[in-house]
Design goal:
6 helices; single chain; about 120 residues; Four Helix Bundle (Hemerythrin (Met), subunit A)
């Protein structure tokens, strides 16, 4: 493991759950944004970035269905609806790739990350 990987691993280990989720959302949004901004050079990376984002949202949606989830019912419902939208949009982008279609996925991730980090 190189120094930067070691630092990144140690940096994440001290984070709380909300911070970890926020960090993951920001990272996937940044990946999608990089592809959007450099479409011609990076569009080959789209499938992997969409898959990572889909997996992240699957984890988030699953957490909302857990019995010990502390979120109010209305928040759970809204997050699950948002996850369904993300899944649908991911399929649309996969079927017909277009950099403009990434805007909403990037925006959703960044806004949820801001809320998790308390920087709304």
């Amino acid at each position: 493991m190189n120094i930067s990987q070691n630092y990144a691993q140690n940096d994440l280990s001290g984070m709380g759950q909300a911070e970890l989720e926020s960090h993951a959302l920001i990272r996937t949004a940044a990946s999608l944004n990089q592809i959007k901004e450099h479409w011609d050079e990076c569009k080959g990376e789209l499938g992997e970035a969409l898959e990572k984002n889909r997996k992240l949202w699957t984890i988030i949606a699953s957490a909302m269905n857990e019995a010990d989830c502390p979120q109010p019912q209305e928040v759970k419902k809204n997050i699950l609806n948002l996850a369904m939208f993300v899944f649908q949009r991911t399929m649309e982008v996969s079927a017909e790739p277009d950099p403009k279609k990434l805007d909403i996925l990037i925006s959703i991730n960044m806004n949820i990350a801001k809320g998790l980090s308390g920087n709304a």
